[in-house]
Specification:
Structural class: alpha/beta
Order of helices and strands: EHEEHEHHEHEEHEEHEEHE
Strand content: 15-25%
Number of domains: 1
Largest sheet: 7 strands, parallel
Helix content: 25-40%
Radius of gyration: 18 Å
CATH superfamily: NAD(P)-binding Rossmann-like Domain
CATH class: Alpha Beta
CATH topology: Rossmann fold
Bound molecules: nicotinamide-adenine-dinucleotide
Distance between the termini: 47 Å
CATH architecture: 3-Layer(aba) Sandwich
Number of strands: 12
Shape: globular
């Protein structure tokens, strides 16, 4: 059996990953460690909470007394736990630095002591590259995070890299693009547009809504993570959409999905 620790496993991608791992890997024992912030919900794991190969631990990755022993007994750590919403990071960045940077540090320190650890998968994000005017980012591109969320993720990303380079912790870093799919908290773009449209309220757009986003289905992300083998991987999707296109895709939900610029960020 392989002991797999999933941090942030009650969130959007983490809960999809836990479910997918239990379904597809009979030899994995999965432990979910989650603080259950506003973004994490037990309900996201409702069908696997009592699974015989799954244990749920309610705790904070920053709390070394809780997270340390869990990392030390693991063969694989898949580290999703983070504060993740850009707008919240602009309003108040402190919790992002604490969880994304300090929390990752606590886990990496424990990883140095973990005798059977084969992989520490640092779930980073393509947002560490900042705004890209043309084409797509490459793994060798400079990191230019432009908001506290992406900066805190870039800090965790480089910290994880340094633990690989300095202490040979078996780190793999993944930088996926925007995910969509089931169990996503409705503050994020696609579920927000969908629920606003259902409730017949305006949808918020940045600028003129023509920034291009690259979308990846959450299960494609989970499959790619399971297969991740090298130090840094960028996962991109086949679909590139602009928010305004999404409005058309959501049109069948109602006739009120008109772009409503609420505020502009300097992208
Ligand atoms: N959603 C995306 O489009 C996307 C794209 C690329 C990368 N990522 C990365 O994937 C990871 C998961 O993203 P998501 O969208 O599922 O996030 P999410 O906000 O839905 O879930 C985050 C989870 O982490 C938990 N958490 C937060 N702070 C914690 C702490 N201190 N200790 C333990 N648990 C804590 C929350 O309770 C929640 O369950 C993040 O690291 C994010 O940066 C997300």
């Amino acid at each position: 059996m392989l002991d797999v620790l999933v941090t942030g496993g009650a969130g959007f991608i983490g809960s999809n990953f836990v479910r997918y791992a239990l379904e597809t890997r009979a030899e994995w024992r999965v432990t979910t460690l989650d603080k259950l912030t506003y973004a994490g919900r037990r309900e996201n794991l409702h069908d696997v909470m009592t699974h015989p190969r799954h244990q749920f631990v309610h705790g904070d990755i920053c709390d070394a007394a809780v997270s340390g022993p869990l990392v030390e007994r693991s063969n694989v750590v898949v580290h999703f736990a983070a504060e993740t919403h850009v707008d919240r990071s602009i309003a108040a960045a402190g919790e992002f630095i604490r969880t994304d940077v300090e929390g990752t540090f606590v886990l990496l320190e424990a990883a140095r002591r973990a005798p059977g650890l084969k992989r520490f998968i640092q779930i980073s994000t393509d947002e560490v590259y900042g705004s890209v005017t043309t084409g797509a980012s490459r793994e060798t591109d400079e990191l230019k995070p432009r908001n506290p969320y992406s900066a805190s993720k870039a800090g965790a990303d480089r910290l994880a890299y340094s633990y690989w380079a300095t202490y040979q912790v078996p780190v793999i870093i993944t930088r996926a693009s925007n995910n969509y799919g089931p169990y996503q908290f409705p503050e994020k773009l696609i579920p927000l547009f969908a629920t606003n449209a259902i409730d017949d309220v305006p949808v918020p757009l940045y600028g003129d809504g023509r920034n291009v986003r690259d979308w990846l289905h959450v299960l494609d992300h989970c499959r790619a993570n399971r297969a991740a083998k090298v130090e840094a991987l960028d996962f991109r999707a086949a679909v590139v959409a602009q928010p305004v296109d999404l409005l058309f895709a959501l049109d069948s939900l109602g006739d009120h999905a008109q772009p409503q610029p609420l505020r502009e960020l300097n992208h």
